[in-house]
Amino acid sequence: MKVNHSLWKAGMKKLRCYFMCIAVIMLFVVTITGCGKQESESAKTLAITCVDDLEGKNIGVQIGTTGDIYASDYEGDEAGTKITRFNKGTDAVQALKQGKVDCVIIDEQPALTFINKNSELSILEEEFALEEYAICVAKEKKELTSAINKALQKLKENGTLAQIISNYIGDDTKGKTPYKSLEGTTRENGTLTMATNVAFPPYEYYENGVATGIDVDMAQAVADELGMELVVSDMEFDSIIIAVQSGKADIGVAGMTVTEDRLKNIDFTESYTTAKQVIIVNNGGESEGLSLKEKFYQTFVEQGRWKYIPLGLFNTVIITLCAGIFGIILGFVFAIIRVAHDRNEHRTAVIKTLNTIAKIYLTVFRGTPMMVQLLIMYYVVFASVKVNPLIAAVLAFGLNSAAYVAEAVRAGIMSIEIGQFEAGRSLGFNYAQTMRYIILPQAVKNALPAMCNEFIALLKESSIVGYIGLMDLTKAGDIIRSNTYEALIPLCSVAVVYLLIVMVLTTGVSHLERRLMKDAR
């Protein structure tokens, strides 16, 4: 096998340039992060010492939580109080550390976990609100709600629930009373799917790659009492109630408080524990910073957290490949229909109808956000079906991608001179043969750059699948971040993986374009 040394040297030079660019970008991020921290420390606002000091401040909350609900009473007041909502409590705390918000309102136990790992933060003595946690169940599942209430009552009476809670809370009992399913427990009653947000320690968090915590153990104990197999589905907090309503999950357990607004849409069981909302503030102290080596160890080596990255990457690649193939096939179909109509080829009633359908399809899928389409696919289209989230994601992204591929291919076909159509027909080819042997090979070459861009966009857009309970590459970084409270290394690592994949795709398409140009000559 002969090796073209000039191409090899050029490729290695390009690869070195890529890695130098990545190194410069990461150095720039580290520098900006350090500068931002200095600025935030030098621009501290007036101290918050009690609930009365919240007026006029920027309050951070996790979206959809009771902290969000209670804090909303301050929003829009004369003092100019601002509520900043985050998808995760970890994000809100990170923003507090960087001075982007003045305080964070969150549940007490997660707050204690946050301050234990961040010495510059503290909790105000005055509590913000008291609340009762309960399990949410769909309104039509009255029998399940009743059965869970009976199970909870039994767990309270025999002390199991108290043992589960004490195993995670309290210095004297922590880690000493882990819950274990009874031997010989039967699972003849099927599965109990639990929707939760595994980023809320000590109620839900990952340990050695497995979801654990008070809520997980409590749900497992309930499942044991009901003779069911517990399945944990990790998703964004604001998607939990929707998942239960639509039947994607049987129960929602994520430190949820019963509120009047929630009761309009969902039922709740009896309370299983009492909690309170507290206020986290920056105490002005210095953080105990870790070295880069220590951060790397904490991010990837400790508890084998590196395993989340390949697992998330696998799902990202599967979604991208399957949705890309589906989008290309469907996109070509719609493109051919549009061209047949626009060039007056076989403009029959059927073609006119199909063209109308294609135009409506393209308008809808190109005119609405991908996030909305994904949620509609999972929670509306498959509302009454327990479909695998991976299948719903592939369909949603494939349908969206097809709309863009269709227009790229149509533009490529329309760029071919009409004379080539006529030449093919004069040689005795029918319309389908002319498209297959003469037009489409040239159109694909013309549309290849646009199709490559769409495939790259599809890869990056797949980062939103965490909203329907799937772990992709971005979600993997979020899980690591929620366990380590370190943002720089997980986020930069995920960004580098995405960048490397895009570079490989771009290089491959460039090579294919050169081959096509060579064949054309």
What is the residue-averaged pLDDT?
A: 86
Structural class: alpha/beta
- Distance, first to last CA: 24 Å
Q: What portion of the residues fall into strands of 2 or more residues?
A: 5-15%
Report the CATH topology name of the largest domain.
MetI-like fold
CATH architecture of the largest domain: Orthogonal Bundle
**What is the CATH homologous superfamily assignment of the largest domain?**
MetI-like
Question: In words, what does this structure look like?
Answer:
By secondary structure, this protein is an alpha/beta fold. The chain folds into two domains: 130-282, Periplasmic binding protein-like II (D-Maltodextrin-Binding Protein, domain 2, 3-Layer(aba) Sandwich); 307-520, Orthogonal Bundle (MetI-like fold), CATH 1.10.3720. 57% of the residues lie in helices and 12% in strands. The strands form two sheets. Strands 1, 2, 3, 4, 5, 6, 9, 10, 11 and 12 form a ten-stranded mixed beta sheet that branches. A two-stranded antiparallel sheet has the order 7-8. The longest helix has 38 residues, at 5-42. The radius of gyration is 28 Å and the shape is elongated. Mean pLDDT is 86; it is low at 31-45.
Features:
MetI-like fold; 521 residues; 2 domains; alpha/beta; ten-stranded mixed β-sheet; D-Maltodextrin-Binding Protein, domain 2; elongated; single chain; two-stranded antiparallel sheet
